[in-house]
Amino acid sequence: DGGVVFEDVHFGYGPEREILKGVSFVVPPGKSLAIVGPSGAGKSTISRLLFRFYDVSRGRVLIDGQDVRGVTQASLRAAIGIVPQDTVLFNDTIYYNVAYGRPGAPREEVEAAARLARIHDFVVSLPDGYDTRVGERGLKLSGGEKQRVAIARTILKGPPILLFDEATSALDTQTEREIQISLREVAENRTTLMIAHRLSTVVDADEILVLDKGRVVERGRHAALLAAG
Ligand code: ADP
Ligand code: ADP
């Protein structure tokens, strides 16, 4: 379960301007879809419709075959795990930050999630390990480390759908590349939506949509899209 469908979705924040002009896609359960496009194309709007921060003006958004208009915000939050661009960690321990979505989770599970997010080795290299405090009054983590903690948190929570909303866009190319490699394992057998500026960051997606001015202008696999320029 956990498929996502957009069916001829139209949407505008106000009546004067349509932001999405008939967007359709299917992410089958366990598959990944990347949405790339320039700033202002409508990518974040798609994630907001998925979470039902807004409702479509025309068309449908389905999760698990169910129209999201019949689903509560609480169920949507449980079904979709989001890793946003800028994660703000709590001024608390690394354990607390990873286990945030599942308080009291056993250490082994926290560590397994951190391994998958490629942050475990770093954490155990610290004198206080998972008990290290982070944030303003604790250890200052790099942008990449923070994103890895956020990814570990989402993995541990275990939602059927993962949404990476520009999750690596703020990082340098090298760090972004490393995190993308671990995301490939994370995304395996889970329904995954990745939103990104650059085509180069979503090489592993099963399908890629190129969005421009609220329309899908191209769709395909990475190599084919690169060849098309
Ligand atoms: P992207 O994520 O691709 O950069 P967005 O979905 O954030 O694009 O925005 C698409 C368009 O919608 C932009 O023109 C933006 O200015 C407009 N927009 C975004 N949020 C709002 C809002 N809350 N009210 C009005 N217009 C908005
Ligand atoms: P912006 O600040 O970019 O104009 P919003 O305030 O609408 O946009 O949302 C900020 C981001 O948080 C969006 O990209 C949205 O997808 C994301 N988001 C969606 N659901 C959640 C959630 N449950 N918890 C935290 N962030 C969420």
Characterize the largest beta sheet: strand count, sense, and whether it forms a barrel: 6 strands, mixed
Radius of gyration: 18 Å
β-strand percent reads: 15-25%
Shape: globular
Low-confidence region ranges: none
Distance between the termini: 35 Å
Adjacency order of strands in the biggest sheet: 6-7-8-3-9-10
Number of strands: 10
What is the string of helix and strand elements? EEEHEEHEHHHHEHEEEH
Give the count of helical stretches: 8
Helical residue percent band: 25-40%
Structural class: alpha/beta
Question: Which small-molecule species are bound to the chains here?
Answer: adenosine-5'-diphosphate
Average pLDDT value? 90
Descriptive overview:
- The protein has 229 residues and is α/β, with parallel strands linked by helices.
- The longest helix has 15 residues, at 143-157.
- It starts with a strand and ends with a helix.
- Strands 6-7-8-3-9-10 form a 6-stranded mixed beta sheet, with helices on both faces.
- The protein has helices spanning 43-50, 73-79, 94-98, 107-116, 120-124, 143-157, 173-187, 222-228; strands at residues 4-11, 20-27, 32-36, 58-63, 66-67, 80-83, 161-165, 191-196, 207-212, 215-220.
- The structure holds adenosine-5'-diphosphate (2 copies).
- The site of one adenosine-5'-diphosphate has 10 residues, from helix 1.
- This is Metal ABC transporter permease.
Describe this protein with a few key phrases.
229 residues, alpha/beta, six-stranded mixed β-sheet, 10 strands, globular, binds adenosine-5'-diphosphate, Metal ABC transporter permease
